[in-house]
Amino acid sequence: MTQIVPAKTRRDQAAELINQLSLDGIKQLFQIVPVLNRRFVKLDKPKHKRQFGSAKGLIAMADDFDEPLDDFQEYMAV
Where are the domains of the chain? Predict the structure, then answer.
């Protein structure tokens, strides 16, 4: 079961852990933080709303799309 922890508590716990780090640990932390920011950054919303039907004419289906495939004849009941 996931435990819900208030943000203030998490921030305080993180501050305690950072205070316990050595200088090398702090240097490593500063190398990791940008990676985490890139990984968990919230994506921006699209600049414009998508237009319904904007891909019309770009995708086509073959006329025999619904026809049975010859490769599966042996599996189909006759």
Answer: 1-40
